[in-house]
Amino acid sequence: xxxxxxxxxxxxxxxxxxxxxxxxxxxxxxxxxxxxxxxxxxxxxxxxxxxxxxxxxxxxxxxxxxxxxxxxxxxxxxxxxxxxxxxxxxxxxxxxxxxxxxxxxxxxxxxxxxxxxxxxxxxxxxxxxxxxxxxxxxxxxxxxxxxxxxxxxxxxxxxxxxxxxxxxxxxxxxxxxxxxxxxxxxxxxxxxxxxxxxxxxxxxxxxxxxxxxxxxxxxxxxxxxxxxxxxxxxxxxxxxxxxxxxxxxxxxxxxxxxxxxxxxxxxxxxxxxxxxxxxxxxxxxxxxxxxxxxxxxxxxxxxxxxxxxxxxxxxxxxxxxxxxxxxxxxxxxxxxxxxxxxxxxxxxxxxxxxxxxxxxxxxxxxxxxxxxxxxxxxxxxxxxxxxxxxxxxxxxxxxxxxxxxxxxxxxxxxxxxxxxxxxxxxxxxxxxxxxxxxxxxxxxxxxxxxxxxxxxxxxxxx
Length: 462
Fold this sequence. Notes:
17 strands, 19% helix, five-stranded mixed β-sheet, 462 residues, alpha/beta, nine-stranded mixed β-sheet
């Protein structure tokens, strides 16, 4: 790969505050009715990763979204999954640890459904409707800053969203009912009779074009809930410069660990070169195994060594400074699927030039593997674990028409953009150097109490 650029003045996107008194939409694409490059030759996307909060979104999360939007004036905002902390106690009556399990799964410990409730369909329906109301309220809170500024947005899903008890299509319907959403309705052929995405739907139906309600002149290529394509055109609207693909990367695998995009989503990725542009930029939640190629293996005693996740457990890593941009950091093992499902190879062969992910709340780095720029983005939320509050961030990705496949990027950190967090301290969980490599996820059900933290310190538990 080429030598990584440093974050100097020449490589950082130029961002300026909105002009005082300008009441037009902050998004230039919103003004024009479609996603396209400006007369300035720029196109900007703001990524928000892992809000991961309960029904009441943390005030600092909202402050960060507001400040980032005002500073960057993005054409589009992409939420890359885990907006909803499906394990939050507010969703106890409909919680399911895995999508294929019964709500209130006994194995998780706190959300036990009584046998009578399981038999009471009316009560079960009431519980789901209550959860739907809470989820909608949560979404409305973190979308409101964008609605006030007329910024269009798109959303995909992570491993915690559906744990609240709602399927992807149910959540997608909530998002699509709100102003500014670019998510298209999934083709009927992609859903079963219950509105759930099918794994083996025919490829032809993947490629049907549609148009966005939020941007009247914006074509959208739907696939399934959380997976679709948004073409981005040049300033004359005559050429699609690249396809912006939003992908539902899956949640968990039946055999343990994290899952993969569905077969239908992989079909769409394989077809990218035939869908109006030879190049594509992909946003999704889960990182792929190839992110580890941006790390350097070191002894466990090395400074800042981080143990890998599951199949990489027992091995320790730091960022490879020769392969990553300056200013990045590694705060936890890369939580990718146990088995390489072939997504990266598909992306490489389909002309993908950038893959932008969230999921690992304490990782923030950028590098290149086999011609694809890989970006790991930390959490922007204050309702879950992560780095110190000042380091929680949104990511700006700025494309330049002169070199559209080499985007510049910049983290918009809370400390620099907003200041001191209003909360006493940001919630961190399981941040000791010892990991539980055999377990598929950290237990995020409850914030640890003082006595639990004391026990963890005594017994060196994560």
